[in-house]
Protein backbone atom coordinates (compact mmCIF):
# COMPACT_ATOMS: atom_id res chain seq x y z
CA UNK A 1 0.00 0.00 0.00
CA UNK A 2 1.31 3.42 -1.01
CA UNK A 3 0.44 6.20 1.46
CA UNK A 4 2.38 9.09 -0.10
CA UNK A 5 0.34 11.77 -1.83
CA UNK A 6 2.70 13.29 -4.37
CA UNK A 7 4.21 10.32 -6.21
CA UNK A 8 1.13 8.41 -7.35
CA UNK A 9 -0.73 9.80 -10.37
CA UNK A 10 -4.01 8.11 -9.37
CA UNK A 11 -3.92 9.76 -5.95
CA UNK A 12 -3.20 13.10 -7.61
CA UNK A 13 -6.23 12.55 -9.88
CA UNK A 14 -8.48 11.87 -6.89
CA UNK A 15 -7.22 14.94 -5.04
CA UNK A 16 -7.82 17.02 -8.16
CA UNK A 17 -11.38 15.65 -8.40
CA UNK A 18 -12.19 17.22 -5.03
CA UNK A 19 -10.72 20.55 -6.12
CA UNK A 20 -12.90 20.39 -9.25
CA UNK A 21 -16.03 19.78 -7.17
CA UNK A 22 -15.50 23.27 -5.77
CA UNK A 23 -14.55 25.09 -8.97
CA UNK A 24 -14.36 22.84 -12.03
CA UNK A 25 -16.27 22.72 -15.29
CA UNK A 26 -17.79 19.61 -16.82
CA UNK A 27 -14.86 19.52 -19.27
CA UNK A 28 -12.37 19.53 -16.39
CA UNK A 29 -14.30 16.80 -14.59
CA UNK A 30 -14.12 14.72 -17.79
CA UNK A 31 -10.34 14.76 -17.41
CA UNK A 32 -10.55 12.89 -14.10
CA UNK A 33 -13.81 10.90 -14.36
CA UNK A 34 -14.44 8.15 -16.90
CA UNK A 35 -17.43 8.43 -19.27
CA UNK A 36 -19.40 5.84 -17.26
CA UNK A 37 -18.22 6.91 -13.78
CA UNK A 38 -20.74 6.44 -11.02
CA UNK A 39 -21.16 8.32 -7.76
CA UNK A 40 -22.76 6.08 -5.13
CA UNK A 41 -23.62 9.16 -3.08
CA UNK A 42 -25.93 10.52 -5.81
CA UNK A 43 -28.94 8.60 -4.46
CA UNK A 44 -29.66 11.59 -2.19
CA UNK A 45 -28.95 14.23 -4.81
CA UNK A 46 -30.93 15.93 -7.62
CA UNK A 47 -32.01 13.72 -10.52
CA UNK A 48 -29.36 15.21 -12.86
CA UNK A 49 -26.66 13.92 -10.47
CA UNK A 50 -27.99 10.35 -10.51
CA UNK A 51 -26.67 9.47 -13.94
CA UNK A 52 -23.21 8.41 -15.00
CA UNK A 53 -20.16 10.25 -16.22
CA UNK A 54 -18.75 13.76 -15.85
CA UNK A 55 -22.10 15.47 -16.50
CA UNK A 56 -23.66 13.74 -13.50
CA UNK A 57 -20.64 14.60 -11.33
CA UNK A 58 -20.90 18.20 -12.48
CA UNK A 59 -24.57 18.18 -11.40
CA UNK A 60 -23.36 17.11 -7.95
CA UNK A 61 -20.84 19.96 -7.96
CA UNK A 62 -23.52 22.51 -8.92
CA UNK A 63 -25.79 21.16 -6.17
CA UNK A 64 -23.04 21.61 -3.55
CA UNK A 65 -22.05 25.04 -4.87
CA UNK A 66 -25.66 26.29 -4.67
CA UNK A 67 -25.61 25.71 -0.91
CA UNK A 68 -21.99 26.25 0.03
CA UNK A 69 -19.53 29.03 -0.73
CA UNK A 70 -15.78 28.82 -0.30
CA UNK A 71 -15.87 25.02 -0.66
CA UNK A 72 -12.54 23.37 0.03
CA UNK A 73 -11.24 19.90 0.84
CA UNK A 74 -8.05 19.59 2.86
CA UNK A 75 -6.49 16.18 2.25
CA UNK A 76 -4.90 14.69 5.36
CA UNK A 77 -4.02 11.25 4.02
CA UNK A 78 -4.13 9.47 0.68
CA UNK A 79 -3.83 5.70 0.50
CA UNK A 80 -3.81 3.42 -2.50
CA UNK A 81 -4.45 -0.32 -2.55
CA UNK A 82 -4.73 -1.81 -6.02
CA UNK A 83 -7.38 0.07 -7.96
CA UNK A 84 -8.73 1.85 -4.84
CA UNK A 85 -7.62 5.27 -3.64
CA UNK A 86 -8.88 6.55 -0.29
CA UNK A 87 -8.64 10.17 0.84
CA UNK A 88 -9.17 11.27 4.43
CA UNK A 89 -10.24 14.91 4.22
CA UNK A 90 -11.85 17.86 5.91
CA UNK A 91 -14.48 19.65 3.84
CA UNK A 92 -15.02 23.28 4.77
CA UNK A 93 -16.96 26.26 3.54
CA UNK A 94 -19.90 28.50 4.40
CA UNK A 95 -23.59 27.84 3.86
CA UNK A 96 -24.87 30.79 1.84
CA UNK A 97 -27.74 29.08 -0.01
CA UNK A 98 -30.36 26.48 0.83
CA UNK A 99 -29.22 22.86 1.02
CA UNK A 100 -31.79 20.55 -0.54
CA UNK A 101 -32.00 16.84 0.33
CA UNK A 102 -33.78 14.52 -2.09
CA UNK A 103 -35.85 11.35 -1.61
CA UNK A 104 -35.34 8.07 -3.47
CA UNK A 105 -37.78 9.21 -6.18
CA UNK A 106 -35.74 12.45 -6.62
CA UNK A 107 -38.47 14.61 -5.08
CA UNK A 108 -37.48 17.29 -2.60
CA UNK A 109 -37.39 15.69 0.84
CA UNK A 110 -36.08 18.54 2.99
CA UNK A 111 -34.57 22.00 2.56
CA UNK A 112 -32.15 23.51 5.06
CA UNK A 113 -32.06 27.31 4.65
CA UNK A 114 -28.79 29.13 5.43
CA UNK A 115 -28.39 30.74 8.82
CA UNK A 116 -26.27 33.81 8.20
CA UNK A 117 -23.46 32.26 6.17
CA UNK A 118 -22.24 29.99 8.96
CA UNK A 119 -18.89 28.29 8.42
CA UNK A 120 -18.32 24.56 8.77
CA UNK A 121 -15.49 22.04 8.71
CA UNK A 122 -16.27 18.30 8.76
CA UNK A 123 -14.26 15.16 8.20
CA UNK A 124 -14.96 12.90 5.25
CA UNK A 125 -13.41 9.81 3.74
CA UNK A 126 -13.68 9.49 -0.04
CA UNK A 127 -13.22 6.19 -1.83
CA UNK A 128 -12.36 6.08 -5.53
CA UNK A 129 -12.06 3.12 -7.89
CA UNK A 130 -9.58 3.85 -10.67
CA UNK A 131 -9.33 2.48 -14.19
CA UNK A 132 -6.88 3.63 -16.87
CA UNK A 133 -5.95 6.75 -14.90
CA UNK A 134 -9.50 7.98 -14.34
CA UNK A 135 -12.12 7.59 -11.63
CA UNK A 136 -14.86 5.10 -12.44
CA UNK A 137 -16.58 4.93 -9.05
CA UNK A 138 -16.85 7.18 -5.97
CA UNK A 139 -18.41 6.81 -2.54
CA UNK A 140 -17.86 8.54 0.79
CA UNK A 141 -18.29 8.44 4.54
CA UNK A 142 -19.28 11.85 5.88
CA UNK A 143 -19.90 13.37 9.29
CA UNK A 144 -23.32 14.83 8.44
CA UNK A 145 -24.32 15.15 12.12
CA UNK A 146 -21.44 17.55 12.79
CA UNK A 147 -22.31 19.44 9.61
CA UNK A 148 -25.90 19.85 10.78
CA UNK A 149 -24.81 20.96 14.24
CA UNK A 150 -22.30 23.50 12.93
CA UNK A 151 -24.85 24.96 10.50
CA UNK A 152 -27.63 25.14 13.09
CA UNK A 153 -29.83 22.51 11.45
CA UNK A 154 -29.82 20.27 14.49
CA UNK A 155 -31.23 20.53 17.02
CA UNK A 156 -33.63 22.81 15.15
CA UNK A 157 -35.38 25.64 16.90
CA UNK A 158 -39.13 26.01 16.32
CA UNK A 159 -38.47 29.06 14.13
CA UNK A 160 -35.90 27.18 12.04
CA UNK A 161 -38.33 24.25 11.63
CA UNK A 162 -40.88 26.69 10.22
CA UNK A 163 -38.25 28.13 7.83
CA UNK A 164 -37.37 24.59 6.70
CA UNK A 165 -41.02 23.75 5.98
CA UNK A 166 -41.54 26.98 4.02
CA UNK A 167 -38.35 26.40 2.03
CA UNK A 168 -39.44 22.83 1.23
CA UNK A 169 -42.85 24.04 0.10
CA UNK A 170 -41.22 26.59 -2.23
CA UNK A 171 -38.81 23.98 -3.61
CA UNK A 172 -41.63 21.53 -4.33
CA UNK A 173 -43.67 24.07 -6.36
CA UNK A 174 -43.62 23.55 -10.12
CA UNK A 175 -40.99 25.66 -11.91
CA UNK A 176 -43.71 27.86 -13.43
CA UNK A 177 -44.89 28.89 -9.96
CA UNK A 178 -41.47 30.20 -8.79
Automatic annotation (TrEMBL):
Pfam families: SnoaL
Signal peptide (from-to): none
Domain of life: Bacteria
An annotated GO BP: polyketide metabolic process
Location of the region described as Disordered in the Swiss-Prot/TrEMBL record: 33-55
Biased composition (Basic and acidic residues): 38-55
The name this protein goes by in its record: Putative ester cyclase
Amino acid sequence: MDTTTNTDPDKATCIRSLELMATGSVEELAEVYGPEATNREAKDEPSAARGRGPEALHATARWLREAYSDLHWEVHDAVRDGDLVVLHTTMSGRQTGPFTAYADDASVEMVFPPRGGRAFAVTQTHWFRMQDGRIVEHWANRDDLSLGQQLGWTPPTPVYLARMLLARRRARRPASAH
